[in-house]
Specification:
The complex is a heterodimer of chains A (about 260) and B (about 300). Chain A is mostly helical and about 260 residues long. In chain A, about 75% of the residues lie in helices and about 0% in strands. Chain A is built from ten helices and no strands. Chain B is globular and about 50 Å long. The chains are: A mainly alpha (about 260), B alpha/beta (about 300).
């Protein structure tokens, strides 16, 4: 039987998606820590995170892993113990995600501070289960799959899986998840006023500003002498550049869309 | 709060300087800015608590360049007076639809909207409903309201807004927020003009996110223009006015990004770089990879 020479593309992507999910769970854990005091907007955030877990990991990532495990089991029945456990995990996590999503929706529709504690607890529990599950897959199931499956097996799984695009971490962010995406960019950036100021005056930026000013001064020293000699010529050339830039737009108004 | 009050006062002081520069440089600006040969209708929408008069300089300048610009004629923009954002916007939409259609018929051309600050938010939201009547939308320092991202807008302005409208700006738009358009909808060009020294709103909340600009197609261009201008002075700042005229004159079917250097002789190119600073180092959009690297 011919084994895959390097880590198959499907597995590379599954590993990458574990990293994405792990980072996202970090936000969930940060937001639902023991001292968390949530505002209305924070519930929208939790809802969007759990909504993404339902939309992609539960609907695409886990079914792909199930397909993978099914093939592993067919080739190597000795793996049945771990495979069965991971399948049960998938079902349990999907049910947990569905329930949490329903509870978050309910809490957003009818705010009830008394129930906030149990929602936070449920979020932490989901994050914990996801992490334990991913660690088990990374440590045991994926290496076993590499050892067991052939190139043809990987090819069959690829055709099913690689066509689905991750709506949050993929190449194109879906409009459904764009609020979460923009939040995550900001979260990674630090995002507050003072970090922006620190970046504004970073050494790198100051050096660049210095270069721009120096080149501007050199330009001015050289060009202003020429400009004095040929002021009219410069003005004429400038007006020609501007009019040529707008020439296509000038004769007719743009069509109504 | 004290820092924000200082930012607010500095912004207003800077705006006074920009107004003076506008008076001094109006003639030169009109000579270098593009001129259109067929009237193109433009409606300008003032910012929060500002009246039609605040757009007078911008309108006068655009009319000198051959556009047919006028203010929204709804008087002072008192913000969101209704019980909710959507009902308030619906009321404004009903009142503006007639104006927009009338002006479009009179000029036989679709109308462009130029909105300052909250007026820009209105322009963006109106475009969802009036896509067929409009030609393009240009916003000047118009913020977005994300439902859970914390944008550090000026707290003094925020408090005034909350007091006048009896609701917090962060509640605008509710769960969906009031964010920039998607890359492909509405099918109109959108230009966001924003400033690094804006004393009222957070610059990052005004610009179109980099990934949306990158995903936008030729038929639905999205563009950011960074200008050195105060928030209050954006409607009379000469650099902003030049950028607005350029983008209004731009051919929609052959959209080219704004290039200020064409308006400056080569010996003044450094001035263009100061007036329109590059945005690469600030609020860089490095994609989700940066987030994953940091938190995995």
């Amino acid at each position: 039987m011919k084994r895959a020479a390097r880590t198959p593309r499907v597995l590379e992507r599954l590993y990458a998606e574990h990293r994405y999910l792990s980072a996202l769970l970090r936000v969930l854990e940060d937001k639902t820590g023991a001292r968390a005091r949530l505002k209305t907007g924070d519930y929208y955030l939790l809802r969007d995170i759990v909504g993404y877990v339902r939309d992609y990991p539960d609907h695409v990532h886990h079914p792909t892993e199930d397909l993978l495990f099914e093939r592993v089991l067919r080739k190597d029945p000795a793996q049945s113990r771990i495979v069965e456990r991971l399948r049960r995990d998938h079902q349990a996590i999907q049910a947990e995600t569905r329930q949490l999503l329903a509870r978050l929706d309910e809490l957003i529709e009818q705010p009830n501070p008394a129930r906030a504690g149990e929602i936070l607890q449920a979020c932490r529990s989901l994050a914990r289960h996801q992490r334990t599950h991913m660690q088990l897959e990374n440590r045991e199931a994926f290496p076993a799959a590499i050892a067991t499956l052939s190139g043809a097996d990987w090819q069959k799984i690829e055709t099913r899986f690689l066509t689905a695009e991750d709506p949050l971490f993929g190449n194109v962010v879906s409009s459904r998840h764009r609020l979460l995406y923009e939040y995550l960019l900001d979260y990674a950036d630090g995002g507050d006023f003072w970090s922006a100021i620190a970046r504004l005056f970073s050494v790198d930026r100051l050096v660049r500003i210095g270069r721009i000013l120096a080149s501007g001064a050199a330009d001015r020293a050289g060009s202003s002498r020429a400009a004095v000699r040929g002021g009219r010529r410069v003005r004429a050339a400038l007006s020609e550049r501007i009019s040529s830039r707008h020439r296509p737009a000038a004769p007719s108004a743009p069509a109504r869309s | 709060m004290v820092g924000d009050l200082a930012r607010l006062l500095a912004d207003l002081l800077g705006a006074a300087g920009e107004s003076t520069l506008n008076r001094v440089g109006a003639g030169v600006l009109s000579r270098i800015a593009p001129v259109v040969h067929r009237p193109r209708p433009v409606i300008t929408i003032p910012g929060f608590m500002a009246s039609d008069g605040s757009m007078a300089r911008l309108n006068a300048f655009l009319n000198r360049q051959g556009f047919k610009a006028r203010s929204w004629a709804l008087g002072q923009n008192r913000g969101l007076q209704g019980r909710s954002w959507s009902s308030s916007l619906e009321r404004i939409r009903r009142r503006m639809t007639g104006q927009i259609r009338e002006l479009a018929d009179a000029c036989s051309a679709p109308v462009s909207l130029v909105g300052h600050s909250l007026g820009g938010v209105y322009a963006r939201e109106l475009a969802y409903h009036l896509e067929d009547e409009l030609d393009r939308v240009i916003t000047l320092g118009a913020p977005t309201f994300h439902p859970y991202r914390r944008d550090r807008h000026n707290q003094v302005v925020h408090a005034i807004g909350r007091w006048v409208n009896r609701q917090s700006a962060t509640e605008f738009g509710g769960r969906a927020g009031l964010v920039h358009w998607d890359a492909d909808h509405p099918r109109l060009p959108c230009v966001a003009i924003h400033s690094p020294i804006d004393g009222f709103v957070h610059e990052r909340a005004c610009l179109i996110p980099g990934y949306i600009v990158a995903q936008s197609g030729r038929k639905t261009p999205r563009e950011n223009i960074r200008v050195l201008a105060t928030h209050a002075g954006m409607t009379c700042n000469v650099w902003v006015l030049l950028a607005v005229a350029d983008r209004l004159a731009a051919d929609r079917r052959n959209w080219q990004p704004f290039d200020p250097r064409v308006y400056f002789p080569s010996y003044l190119s450094h001035l263009a770089r100061c007036a329109y600073p590059a945005a690469d180092a600030l609020w860089g959009d490095r994609g989700a990879a940066a987030f994953v690297r940091k938190f995995q």
